[in-house]
Each structure stands twice: as structure tokens, then as C-alpha cells.
Design brief:
Layout: E1 9-19, E2 22-32, E3 37-41, H1 48-55, E4 63-68, E5 71-72, H2 78-82, E6 85-88, E7 97-98, H3 99-104, H4 112-121, H5 125-129, E8 138-139, H6 148-162, E9 166-170, H7 178-192, E10 196-200, H8 204-209, E11 212-217, E12 220-225
Parallel strand pairs: 3-10, 3-11, 6-9, 9-10
Antiparallel strand pairs: 1-2, 1-4, 4-5, 7-8, 11-12
Bound molecules: adenosine-5'-triphosphate (ATP) and magnesium ion.
């Protein structure tokens, strides 16, 4: 079992391949302190998704160690590990039901008031209230009637309710209007407070406000630093 974590994440000499003989990550090293916000950038196929997938142990590494609060993630159950992490993929998962249900999925015990408070905190409330039935509006699996940015806002509210110490976000790439982009940026700042986060970043606003930027190419970290340093 993974004990309750604070959220420190360390990669130490991590080597990884999906198929034998084809190395994807070659000696990756970094340490994220509690509350750090890492933006991960780099060309397509560089290994960005691979790195974040390894944190939640979707694959076993060839050699090296991945430590959370100093504990080797291979020494705990996958279930107890994932329980403490929030993962938000690019195409946010929406199931068929109301918007209220979709947000409450983050924490089944949350009351309607909790859901609304979370939505307000991440700047999702106003767009939800502009829909014909507000929180009771029906949406479906394909997220029809919701833009990519709106789906991402719903996933922020959901993640806030789940309250994980480590957050992983693959930012939406599809075109997002400036107004939604502003909401996403504000909502994200609220969501990130007090958590360690790894964001595969496509938007300059996210990159600028991260405490560290990791530039990955061909499975290697080429540069690490703040926006001003790079
Ligand atoms: P993008 O910006 O396009 O999402 P990325 O930086 O996230 O790219 P990864 O998905 O981490 O890149 O892929 C890194 C490398 O690993 C690529 O060469 C890719 O082809 C390969 N790869 C990714 N997933 C698998 C898989 N399941 N099996 C085999 N190879 C894979
Ligand atoms: Mg990717």
C-alpha cells in the first residue's frame, strides 16, 4: 500500500523501452518537489506522454527508479498509487449523464453544493449556467455540445473534487478561443495550488506560469529551467 503522499516525484536514471531493443527513454533524471508545476514540452514522438504514463505505472521501466515521496513505485500496489494521482487526458472523459454527475465522478460523496463550489473555483460555473439546464444538462460520451476547452474545464472541477497530491494533465491542443483559454488558465492555477503537477503543455500561458519547464527530445531531457531562464 502507498501511504498518504505529499507529492514529491523523482526519476533516477530511468531507462525505458516499449519493445525490446528500442529505447524510448535513455537515463531520465529529474526531481519535482511538493507543489512544483512542471511543463513538459518537445516535438511529437519525443517521449512526453511516455514520461507521464510511467509516473502512474502504466508500464514497467527497464532500469532506474521512480520514487514518490522517496518510495519506489514498484514496491506498492498500482491501485494504491493511482488513488493518489489525478490524470487528465487530452480528450477529457465525459460519460452520458448530467454535467453534475460528470463532475461528481471525481468524488462520489460530494454534495451538489460541493460540485458547484468546485466548478466555481476552476471557472467552469459560468459556462455551465449558460447551458439550457445548467448542471442538469445532459451530455454524452462523445461530449457533444461541449467544446474541447469546456470538457477540460469539467475535468478540472472533477479533479478538484478528487483532491489528488499529484496531477497529470495533457493539455487540449484543439483550437480554443481566447475567452476559454483565459478561463482554463485561471482555473488551472486554482487547481494546481498545493499539488505537484506535470503538464504536457501546448499553451504559452501554461508554460509561462510553470515553476519548471522540461524540454524533451528523443527521450532525453535537453533543458530544464524556468520560462525566464530558457
Ligand atoms: P506527442 O506530442 O505526439 O503526443 P509524445 O512526446 O507524447 O508525442 P510519446 O507518445 O511518449 O511521444 O512517444 C515516444 C515514442 O514512443 C515514439 O517514438 C512513439 O512512437 C513510441 N511509442 C509510444 N507509445 C508506444 C507504444 N504503446 N508502443 C510502442 N511504441 C510506442
Ligand atoms: Mg503525447
Amino acid at each position: 500500500e502507498m501511504p498518504p503522499i505529499k507529492g514529491e516525484v523523482e526519476f533516477s536514471h530511468v531507462v525505458f523501452s516499449y519493445e525490446p531493443g528500442v529505447r524510448i527513454l535513455n537515463d531520465v533524471n529529474f526531481k519535482a518537489n511538493v507543489g512544483d508545476s512542471f511543463a513538459i514540452v518537445g516535438p511529437t514522438g519525443a517521449g512526453k506522454s511516455t514520461i507521464v504514463n510511467l509516473i502512474s505505472r502504466f508500464y514497467n521501466i527497464d532500469s532506474g527508479k521512480i520514487l514518490i515521496d522517496g518510495i519506489d513505485i514498484n514496491s506498492v500496489t498500482i491501485k494504491s498509487l493511482r488513488k493518489q494521482m489525478g490524470v487528465m487526458m487530452q480528450d477529457s472523459f465525459i460519460f452520458s449523464g448530467t454535467i453534475m454527475d460528470n463532475i461528481r465522478y471525481g468524488n462520489r460523496e460530494a454534495s451538489d453544493e460541493d460540485v458547484i463550489r468546485a466548478a466555481k473555483t476552476v471557472c467552469a460555473h459560468d459556462f455551465i449556467m449558460s447551458m439550457e439546464n445548467g448542471y442538469q444538462t445532459q451530455v454524452n460520451e462523445r461530449g457533444s455540445r461541449l467544446s474541447a476547452g469546456q470538457r477540460q474545464l469539467i475535468s478540472f472541477a472533477r479533479a478538484l473534487l478528487a483532491d489528488p497530491k499529484i496531477l497529470i494533465l495533457d493539455e487540449a491542443t484543439s483550437s480554443i478561443d481566447t475567452e476559454t483559454e483565459l478561463l482554463l488558465q485561471q482555473g488551472l492555477q486554482e487547481l494546481l495550488k498545493g499539488r505537484t503537477s506535470f503538464i504536457i503543455a501546448h499553451r504559452l500561458s501554461t508554460i509561462k506560469s510553470s515553476s519548471c519547464i522540461m524540454y524533451i527530445d528523443q527521450g532525453n531531457i535537453l533543458e530544464k529551467g524556468t520560462h525566464d531562464e530558457l
